[in-house]
Amino acid sequence: MDTIFQAFHLAQYQGSGPALAATLTPIEPPHNPTLLRRFYNDSNGFAVENDIQHYLRMTQSPLSKAESTAWRDIYVAYWKAIGEILRAETGHHRDDWAIKVYEAWKEVTNLLIRGYSHASFGAWTMPCLYTAGKYLRVFAIKADEEQAIKVRTGEVNMEGDTLGDDIMPVFEKNAWLEDAAR
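Above: the chain sequence. Below: its structure as tokens.
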């Protein structure tokens, strides 16, 4: 976690949105190919919130309590999303891996939006929102592809077994991408 939060603190100190957004990317940087795995392995589900709060307190720029809480929540969701991504990469998610990654990343994106509306994040941090939205779209497309494969292979019942399925189909072609657009 040290590397990501050192970059976070430097970005906060410099007021660099692109540098701050780089701390929230779900892709391993070429110059540090184990960064996300180390970030995820540096904590566990029980201690992640306290660990991240500890790293945020070390910031050199004065964050308000609302900002600090918002960033903590964002990085906890980010930690969870990285866990889903790593499980998908190692093959631990055989079913619905793309949907699980999409849902976890959607939480990161929603918490960022909440940071702008409730914690008054500065405009200079907008590249974070762009990065989150960019990857939300990528993960939504992957989830739609996964769903389409299931439909083609017959894993998803297109007939529907419940009353009301005739009104709302079980599967829409770009359901996850449409969800991301909302």
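The first helix runs from residue 2 to 14.
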